[in-house]
Amino acid sequence: DQQLLQHMEDRVRKVQEDCEELSLVSGNLQKDCEQKQKDIEMLFQSLETLKKDKADEQNVLAAMAVKADKAALGSKVNCTQFEASMERLDQRMQEMQGQVSGQNQHWNKLQQQLSNVMEKKLDRQELKAFHKHVEETWQKSIKELEKKMAESDSAAGMSKQLPVPFTCLSCDRTVKTQVPG
């Protein structure tokens, strides 16, 4: 009996030691599990931050792709040359407009003078037919002049917009815009 009792006590001690060891191991495992859970949460937070940063980076890269490369832009157009050309073109257009308006004023003066002369000279009865013929010829000349003026306006691009397809300097996309001046 004694031996059996001793054997049972040894077994109980052994089981207690195993329980204590198991309790220590389970405590360590629980601590490790909690630490790993915290690490996983930190990884998820880092992952979310990286996703946001990557989205921002993609936006920046997309914006950079849209913008023009300065070296390529310099080879396409020299800004000072373009501005100088546009200024010269504007000056020439203003000179042409001045000439056309000067011609209009000159023709209006001439028409008024001729009308005055005709009224003074052609008041007689026998010259009525001649007066009518001169007026018809005068009206035809005025219509032809107006027609030529309209053609010269459209040829110089003064009353119509130029049909030149402009392109964006940065992305070469076609831009519909009004011609300056």
UniProtKB/TrEMBL annotation:
Alphabetical list of InterPro entries matching this protein: DUF4795
Family matches, as Pfam families: DUF4795
Keyword entries, A-Z: Coiled coil
Location of the DUF4795 domain: 1-180
Coiled coil: 5-53, 79-106
Entry annotated with the keyword Coiled coil: yes
Signal peptide bounds: none
Organism superkingdom: Eukaryota
Protein name: QRIC2 protein
Organism: Piprites chloris (Wing-barred manakin)
Gene (UniProt): Qrich2_4
